[in-house]
């Protein structure tokens, strides 16, 4: 009778293996995966990061276009000058008014309303309204500015309509210039919000809205308790994009009013242009541009934090 002998597992089997470490092959594969991104990273550093870094340096100097051999570093003097300048503070206020009225209220609200109405409209109506709204969006900014200048000027279309209705007319570009340019920006930019909200509304399951109708929920209750919560992320994305675009609007206002009269429609981009290129104060104008960049960044941070919230 034979007995089975236990075999010695040997040191190779009894030795416990430690946690795996990245090998050279794994690192090589990671580098190969990142290699296609190298041109994009180089282009971003060359054409985006480098100009921003150079502008940040210029903002701390007294660089001028004329009458100066070389610039000198002056620290935060340009920023102190800006916050003590009534024209700059007026431009900040008008920029906020222009952004809130034309983007947060005008484009956002009108775009959502058009998207909701076009869902219930017939196909010919959707085609006609969509074509008109998108045509205003694809027009170059300068062309749109000339069209709205012809609409709001003293002898323009708006006053002609008011005279035909026997209503008082006025020179809108002189009495209410910031509201006139805000309306122009709404007219031109609403199409983007409409397209964003149309796509978002199409993603809402019809079963949910039909169930709410069966339960007796009216249109406003469905909008407030169902539609808006379900497209919350689209609202945040749209608000961020149109806010950043509105903060940088220059050509539309320049064509219509050139920031006048008396600075009543001079937003930060126009103020920056006037200081840098008309008054030749490149350092001061660049400091204003840097402050505008900071304002846009703050808006972006707020919207991105809102977008993190789950619906």
SSE succession: HHHHHHHHHHHHHHHH
Largest sheet: none
- Total count of strands: 0
- Give the overall shape: flat
Approximately how much beta-strand content do the residues carry?
Answer: under 5%
Termini gap: 75 Å
Percent range for helical residues? over 70%
**Roughly how many Å is the radius of gyration?**
29 Å
Mean of residue pLDDT values: 84
Low-confidence stretches: 1-8, 11-16
Return the structural class: mainly alpha
Task: Count the DSSP helices.
Answer: 16
Folded structure, characterized:
By secondary structure, this protein is mainly α. Helix content is 73%, strand content 0%. Helix 5 runs parallel beside helix 10 (177-202) and helix 11 runs antiparallel to helix 12. The longest helix has 35 residues, at 86-120. The model is unreliable at 1-8 and 11-16 (pLDDT under 50).
In short:
The chain has 311 residues and is an all-alpha fold.
Topology, please?
Layout: H1 10-14, H2 24-34, H3 38-58, H4 77-83, H5 86-120, H6 123-138, H7 141-152, H8 157-164, H9 172-175, H10 177-202, H11 206-214, H12 219-230, H13 232-247, H14 251-256, H15 268-278, H16 282-308
Helix pairs in contact: 4-16, 5-10, 5-13, 6-10, 7-10, 10-13, 11-12, 13-16, 15-16
